[in-house]
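This week, work through this protein record:
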Amino acid sequence: MSSGEFSRRVRDLLRDRSMSIRAVARRLNYDHAYLSRVLSGKQQPSMQLASALDKLLNGNGELVECASQATAPTASPETTKPPAITDRIFKLNEARGPDFSQAIRETSRRLIALDNELNGVSIAEPAGRAFKVVHRRLGDGDYDLRHERDIQSAAAELAEVAGWALWDAKRDDAAQRFNLQALFLAKLSGDRSIELLTLQNMATLSEWRGRNQEALSIARSVLNQGRLSPRVEAMFRFREAKGLVGTGRTSDAIESLERARSLIEDGTELGTPDWAWWVTHGEIDSQWGHVLQIAGDTEKAIELLLQSVQPGRHATTGYSSAPVARLAQCFLDVHAWREAEDVARSLVTAAPGISSERTVRLVGRVAKQREKLKGAPSSLTDTLEHLGKQLDEDPFAL
């Protein structure tokens, strides 16, 4: 049974009970955008969500059963194998006419699915190689000029995916090159949506490089143009907030985050691009908590980071452990040993499946705190030592 069948059954029950998705999100304390993706069949339902929906809608176990069937494998690995990235790259070499742009878009979708759904998989190298194939063909003119703008638009999206993946793999210089290609192709093709997403990525890269004023300038260059959907504006508001706190303007950063929160709560989805699905209440909590952590307001940072890591608050992404690592660091900073140990244990469990190099480094900093702790119980230092060993473990060792 597919996730689409699960979502159809839930929608039928909602219609029978005259309930809206937004009302259900409020009742269950789940993010509206996350719930919408599940109920549109774009994301697999978690068993926790299925159980909550079943109880709310009096499904008598039917929804739990549907969800378990939707997430279970339908055939053995010998009979069913997902299309490999190498197959996609082969299509990029061979496709002609409108099939070329379609092959590029299919490659991007496959890479995004790998990035968000499979633990322990880094897409930086296959994404980079795929775009290099496209980049060569564009330079050689090896495509049908009648479909040029659509091909350029698709290529811009693939370059953006590669740029993001390279940033996540801590390949900053390469990420910058791919971001610039994505921005160039997006402007050339008139694809404003990918242009905005690429500018967000560029602001994020500047922030992580410590170039906070540059990150702020990028965010404000977009905000000053106006004409943004609420969710996209919220995304650039928390990029603005990060730039502001990085340049010492904490109160202004809080104002930007308050604006981002109000935009999300407004609930207007008109004009929102598909890629903005990850801009959720949980993401705002996470970004806000990080801003407060940077500003040194650790107690308030803990409150928001705790909210951000609650089930259903975040969309599923490859960097979901980042706010958990920040929360662990905050607990260590205020000597909340028991809470720090609980969070560290959850990171030990998650560590083998973390593919994001950025997240690995955040978690690694937490593990190294064992060398500096004074007065901490031995159980905490032992857990942090175990966490460090998990991160250093060879992923191919059995």
